[in-house]
Amino acid sequence: MSAAPSAPDELLDAAASGDRVALARLLSMVERGGALSGDVARLAYAAATPYTVGITGAPGSGKSTLTNELIHAARRGWPAHGDRATTEPVARVGVLAVDPSSPFTGGAILGDRVRMQEHATDPSVFIRSMATRGHLGGLTLAVPEAVRVLGAAGFPLVVVETVGVGQMEVEVASATDTTVVVVTPGWGDAMQASKAGLLEIADLFVVNKGDRPGVSEARRDLQQMLDLSAPSEWRPPVLTTVASAGDGVEDLWAAVALHRAHLESTGTLERRRKARYAQELRRVLTALVLEDVRTLAAGRSFDDAVRAIADGELDPYRAAEALLDERDRQLHETPR
Ligand SMILES: Nc1nc2c(ncn2[C@@H]2O[C@H](COP(=O)(O)OP(=O)(O)O)[C@@H](O)[C@H]2O)c(=O)[nH]1
Ligand SMILES: [Mg+2]
Predict the structure, then answer these.
(1) Are residues 190 and 309 both part of a single domain?
(2) Shortest-distance ligand to the CA of residue 165
(3) pLDDT 10s digit of each residue in the chain, 336 long?
(4) 93-96-102 Cα angle (round to 5)
(5) Which residue segment(s) compose the domain that 149 sits in?
(6) Contact 66, 249 (CB under 8 A)
(7) Does residue 163 have its Cβ closer than 6 Å to ligand 1?
(8) Residue located nearest, by CA, to atom 13 of ligand 1
(9) In a domain, 42, yes or no
(10) Are residues 196 and 99 in the same domain?
(11) Which of 266, 296, 317 is the last residue of a domain?
(12) What is the CA radius of gyration of the chain?
């Protein structure tokens, strides 16, 4: 028997042929960040980019329940539309459940697991929880990398579930091709979503828990807010679901497919992805430069620079320049 693969390239080969342990290890590398993560990113980048659907909203709004139902719908296939004459089954579905709000208790993550339990034994479905990664860039870099790893492992569709509460979570949620914002009936939920900046990133709205009172009010609030926002070529539809009963999920999936067709036919998909790559490149550059400054410019440390700024000796620009100069000097002496 040969030894289990451990190098990123071996792991990726194994993952592509269905080895789930190998896939989990690759995603752990991505999550941890650092040098191995860079190796994984280099290997995975050439693969086809999966289509990504973001599901975001307040804790408890039913995102995991909805995701669980969407997996069923996706496995049945993309509905026929436009150029696609027949339904096209999605061979493999990946789920990344991102919940940085509970890195220690794992409470929400446990909930996600329970909600999607029925897919646990399906080899075509891979569900992974992701918590914060220690180094700079955090989840905003780890999630797109994880998506690409899933793509390289043969997953054409990845659902990213995020709690839409903080700025970082909203950023992660918005970095998907189709972003679904979930609200529940009840006074002010739509308003809360708007405050959290979710209105701007929504391609589709779902009023989940449609079995509860206040559905028409929630729908009306959302429509009114949409009326007030700048007109664009895509007005986000507002759908109603009862995720716990599977009601409305087929329509939601059809709306995702329609949005995808819209993005593809207008060239918006390409433009959006390009903007995301630009953002990712900015983040990687920032991370690399900061890393260099931390390790190489130790003689003139970051902390000293902060002190100098606090003491009024340097302004942040001159402090940054001094650190970069120091880094360049050291790079010159000891080439990488
Ligand atoms: N009444 C009702 N409860 C729901 C519905 N969808 C989900 N739930 C319940 O709401 C709770 C939170 O769901 P969950 O999917 O974990 O929410 P998440 O935190 O957004 O992922 C669970 O107890 C679900 O069973 C729904 O449509 N109606
Ligand atoms: Mg959840």
Answers:
(1) no
(2) 1
(3) 457 778 999 999 999 999 999 999 999 888 887 777 788 888 888 788 899 999 999 888 999 999 999 998 998 888 876 666 667 778 899 999 886 554 433 444 555 566 666 777 788 899 988 876 555 467 888 899 999 999 999 999 999 998 877 777 788 888 899 999 999 998 677 777 787 788 889 999 999 999 999 999 999 999 998 998 888 899 999 999 999 999 999 999 999 999 999 999 999 999 999 999 998 899 888 888 888 888 777 667 888 889 999 999 999 999 999 999 988 888 888 655
(4) 155
(5) 48-266
(6) yes
(7) no
(8) 62
(9) no
(10) yes
(11) 266
(12) 22
